[in-house]
Amino acid sequence: MKLANAGIKTLPRHVAIIMDGNGTWAKKRGLPRNFGHRQGARALKNVVLFASKIGIKYLTVFAFSTENWSRPREEVDYLMKLPAEFMRANETDIHKHNIRFACIGDRSRLPEDLQKTIDKYEKETAENDGMIFIVALNYGGKADIIQAVNRVIDEGVAEVDEEKFERYLYTKDMPDVDLLIRTSGQKRISNFLLWKLSYSELYFTKTLWPDFNKTQFLKALKEYSNRDRRYGGIK
Asked: What's the CATH code, domain 3-140+178-224?
């Protein structure tokens, strides 16, 4: 696909997405919230494969936050099953597109079988050198910074700068986010990737996540391409 034909001159290296609106999508159709999450997983597959195809280097999605444990038990249980189902269902495509899988967040609270599945797919895709697809599970930006501070203290480090401190974060192996996309019309970052979003371009759309498709993605990329990123400077 020629991105220039879509008005896209520059691609972001790292795109992060807050996949919001699954519950609203289901409610509008008189369906249980879990149906919305299932449809959201289908949308995610299409976005992952398309992002890989057009040359995005890193794609990070917010799958489950540290605050999501307060949701109804039935919904939480379903959300804990969904990542493994997603990986198994799309394993062939992930390898075919040479995608590397990674997960960030506190895994200790995740079900043991999910922890094993995450380890399995991280190891199996470790040699893939295409796009890196990162799933944030039981992740919170504040919690990430706090755990990093505690690790610095535990190791007896007397002083750190930004570069050294970043090595203790869950996000240490990824570059800063260039473009953050949030669906469903909400305009906030919801404790996501706080350290990595310091100079990100923010894009908000009213489209509910299950309806987010290639056309919507290209629209976000086009707007990013037309923005003037100044990083605090004056032009």
From this structure: 3.40.1180.10
- Tell me if residue 213 is catalytic: no
Amino acid making up residue 148? A
Helix, strand and coil percent figures for the chain, each rounded to 5: 45, 15, 40
DSSP strand E in the chain: where?
A: 14-18, 58-65, 100-104, 132-139, 179-182, 201-204
Does residue 132 contact residue 57 with C-beta atoms inside 8 Å?
yes
Query: What is the domain partition of the chain in residue ranges?
Result: 3-140+178-224
Q: Which of 22, 68, 90, 213 is catalytic?
A: 68
* 20, 22, 90, 144: the active-site residue: 20
Strand-pair category, 14-18 with 58-65 = parallel
Report the relative pairing of strands 58-65 and 100-104 from DSSP bridges. unpaired
Name the nearest CA neighbour of 12 among 168, 208, 175, 170.
175
Angle between helix 73-96 and 112-124 (nearest 10): 10
C-alpha count within 13 angstroms, C-beta hemisphere, residue 224: 26
Helix axis angle for 214-225 and 33-54, nearest 10°, is 50
Distance CA 70, CA 101 (A): 27
Q: How far apart are CA 59 and CA 156, in angstroms?
A: 34
At residue 234, the pLDDT reads: 53
pTM, entire model: 0.95
- 28-67 pLDDT per residue, tens: 999 999 999 999 999 999 999 999 999 999 999 999 999 9
